[in-house]
Amino acid sequence: MEFTIIGKITNTHGIKGEVRVYPLTDNIERFSDLDKVYIGEAKRQASVKTVKYHKGLAILGFEEFDNINQVLDFKDQYLYIDDEDRIVLPEDRYFIFDLIGCEVFDMANKSIGHIVDVILNMGNDVYVIKNHKGDKEYLIPAVKEFIKTIDIDKKKIVIDPIEGMIE
After folding, report:
1. Tens digit of pLDDT for each residue in 85-137?
2. Residue 80 and which of 4, 30, 37, 90 are 20 to 30 A apart at CA?
3. Domains of the chain (ranges plus CATH)?
């Protein structure tokens, strides 16, 4: 079975076994559609009982857990769903976790580095690319003027940067 990361548990919430989840999605409301999730690297299955939202976080309660002591170890763990439960994205849209780790090349097929983060902005997203030495980061707007091809299967992205964008 394949899994998709949908968020990261940042802390517990209250004393009744709820957790705060930082969503790794651009639509936090998707958490309301969840029936089950998998917690941490061990992929411990849990049935979603309640979903609330507060200050950009999803607060989840589970059928299996009813007190804070049962969920303390989940802090800083990732939350997963079955790949088959993923939503289908429109063409030219990508999950952030699929972009992270992609190698980025310029139009001359010279490797620039890897995507390490995606900044979600109102106008357009911005890809954060770290060079191979790890001493420089480049911010590339995720627009067609700069992003020429994205091949998630090959983990390869080709960009056409303007002068001064990559130095």
Report:
1. 888 888 888 888 889 999 999 999 999 999 999 988 878 999 999 999 989 99
2. 90
3. 3-84 (2.40.30.60), 96-159 (2.30.30.240)
